Amino acid sequence: MIMLYQLHELTRSFIAPMASFTEIGSSLFSNPFSPYTYLPLSKNIAAGFELFHRLGKDYEKPQWNIDTVKVAGKDTPISINTVLAKPFCNLIHFERGHSKHPDGDPKVLIVAPLSGHHATLLRDTVRTMLTGYDVFITDWVDARMVPLSKGPFHLDDYVDYIREFIRKVGPDMHIMSVCQPTVPVLAAVSLMASGKEAGMPKSMIMMGGPIDTRLSPTQVNSLAYSNPFSWFENRLIHVVPGRYPGAGRKVYPGFLQHAGFVAMNPDKHMESHYDFYMNLMSDQLSEAEHHRRFYDEYNAVLDLPAEYYLDTIRVVFQDHLLPKGQWDVRGQRVKPADIHHTRLLTIEGENDDITGHGQTEAAQKLCSGLDAKDRKHFMAKGCGHYGIFSGSKWRKQVFPVVDAFISETEAAGSDRNKAAA
After folding, report:
1. d(Cα 9, Cα 367) in Å, to the nearest integer?
2. CA dist., res. 246 & res. 87, Å (int)
3. How far is the C-alpha of 238 from the C-alpha of 230, rounded, in Å?
4. pTM
5. How many whole angstroms separate alpha carbon 345 and alpha carbon 67?
6. Euclidean distance between the first and final Cα of the chain, in Å?
7. What is the structure's pLDDT at 421?
8. Which of 182, 168, 214, 210 is nearest to 344 (CA)?
9. What does DSSP assign to residue 62?
10. Listed residue (100, 94, 171, 131) closest to 413, CA to CA
11. If 0-12 CB within 10 Å is exposed, 13-18 middle and 19+ buried, where does residue 167 land?
12. Whole-angstrom distance, CA of residue 29 vs CA of residue 136
C-alpha cells in the first residue's frame, strides 16, 4: 500500500513554515500601524501573501459560532451541550433561553453527513431551525482521532447510532437527514417500525440523499459505479500516521475527499480565489470575508472509517441494496414499507450535481405503507446541493416547506390525541 497519508503529512510539514511566513507578510503589508502598508503596491503584496497563506494553511474543525438566535422576535442565548458521547459521534443539543411556544417547541434531530466535512457545514441549517425548534445534531468525530481500541465502525454501526440517538432525543421528535445519512436514517426508522418499537419519530425530512443512485446518476455516482470494489480498497484506503490518537486505523482520508470535491468544479474554485485576490486589491472587504468563511468550512475535512466508507460504496452506490429490498442490518431485513405512522418529506434541488433528480424522491415509493397524505415531495427551484440546506435559498425557499410540514405533522398528532381522548 502506498504510504500516501505519510507523504501528505510530510508535504504539509514543508508547507507549514511558508504558510506562517505569508500570514505574517500579509499583516505586515496591510496593518494600518505598519509603515509597509503605505508603500506602492502594498495591497498587491498583502493580497498575494494572504492568498498563498490560505492555500497552504491547515484548516481545523470550525466552531459553531451560534451564540444567540431570534425566537419569537426575541434574542435568546444558545448553549451547546453534549448529551451522548460515542466513540465516533457526539450527540449535541443547542439549548435555548426560551421557546417559541409556551408548552415547548418540537424536537428535531438533524443527522449531519459523514462524508468528509464536519457537522458545522450545517451551521445555517441549525441556526434557522433554532428559531422555532428544539434542535439536536450528530457531531461526527474525525476517525484519525479515534483510538484503535474503540474498534471498527461499519455502516451497520451507523444505523445503530441513529436508533440510539432517536431514543435519546425522543419521544415525539422529528428527524432530518441531509445528503448521505438519508440511507442509514431510513434504515434505522424502518427497523424500528418492523420491531414495533415505541418512540418512533413523528416525521422524516430527507434532503438531497442517495436513496436510489440508479436514477439520474451524477459524476459522483458514476465514479462509484465505474470502478470495481477492489479499486476503492486498494487506492483510497490508507493508514493513520503515528502522531494521531487513531494511529494505525484504516481510513478514507479527508484530504482525498477534499481533492475530489475540488476536482468536480476546478474552474469555479480558481475563479473564486481570483475574485478573492481582486476583492482584497479593491477593498471589497465584505466579499473577501464571505470567501474566508466559506473556505474555512469547505477546506476543513475529516477522515472516514474505512469499514463505513467501503460499506457505503457497496451497499448504496454499487449494489443498490436499499431500493432493491435486499439490505440486511445485523441480519434483519430493512423494510421501509413497514413504516406506517412516521410522515415523510423528501427534498431535492433542481440544480443538484451530487444527488440526481429522483434519488431522494425514491423514498416515497419505498415507504408504501404510508398514506398519500403523509408523503410529500418538494423540488427546490434553482437550488444546487448546498443550497438545499444553506444560504438564502434554504432560508427563503426550503425552510418554509420544512416548517409547514412539521407544523402540519404536529397538528395532525394533536388531532389524533384529542380523538383518542
Report:
1. 46
2. 11
3. 14
4. 0.92
5. 30
6. 65
7. 42
8. 182
9. P
10. 171
11. middle
12. 44
Per-residue pLDDT at 414:
57
Dihedral over alpha carbons 302, 308, 313, 317 (to 10 degrees): -100
pLDDT at 9: 86
Residues of the chain scoring pLDDT < 70 = 1-2, 414-421
- Give the type of residue at 155: L
Widest CA span in the chain: 80
Q: What angle do CA 81, 83, 84 make, to 5 degrees?
A: 135
**C-alpha closest to that of 402 among 174, 114, 121:** 174
- The type of residue at 274 is Y
Cell of 111: 443527522
In which element (H, E) is residue 349 found?
Answer: strand 343-349
Query: Would you say 375 and 343 are in contact if contact means Cβ atoms under 8 Å apart?
Result: yes
- Lookup result for grid cell 450527540: 91
Q: Are 297 and 62 in contact (CB under 8 A)?
A: yes
Q: Which residues pair with 76 in a beta bridge?
A: 69
C-alpha cell at 31: 496593518
Q: 419 to each of 397, 412, 416, how far by Cα in Å?
A: 34, 11, 5
Confirm if 253 and 8 have CB atoms less than 8 A apart: yes
- Specify the residue for cell string 436513496: 211
Helix, strand, coil percentages (3-state) for the chain, rounded to 5, are 50, 15, 35
Helix axis angle, 266-281 relative to 42-56, nearest 10°?
Answer: 150
Cβ density class 46-66: b for 16+ within 10 Å, e for less: bbbbbbbbbebbebebbebeb
| pLDDT for the residue numbered 226 | 85
**Over the stretch 281-305, which tens digit does the pLDDT of each residue have?**
888 889 999 999 999 998 999 999 9
What is the structure's pLDDT at 419?
Answer: 45
Q: Residue 40 forms beta bridges with which residues?
A: none
DSSP letters for 262-276: HHHSHHHHHHHHHHH
Please give the grid coordinates belonging to residue 367: 415507504
Task: Please tell me whether residue 177 adopts helix, strand or coil conformation.
Answer: strand
Tally the C-alpha atoms within 13 A of residue 32's C-alpha that lie toward its C-beta: 0
pLDDT at 79: 96
Q: How far apart are CA 12 and CA 103, in angstroms?
A: 52
Cell of 346: 423528501
**CB-based contact 5:252 (threshold 8 Å):** no
Among residues 294, 295, 313, 296, the alpha carbon closest in space to that of 304 is found at 313
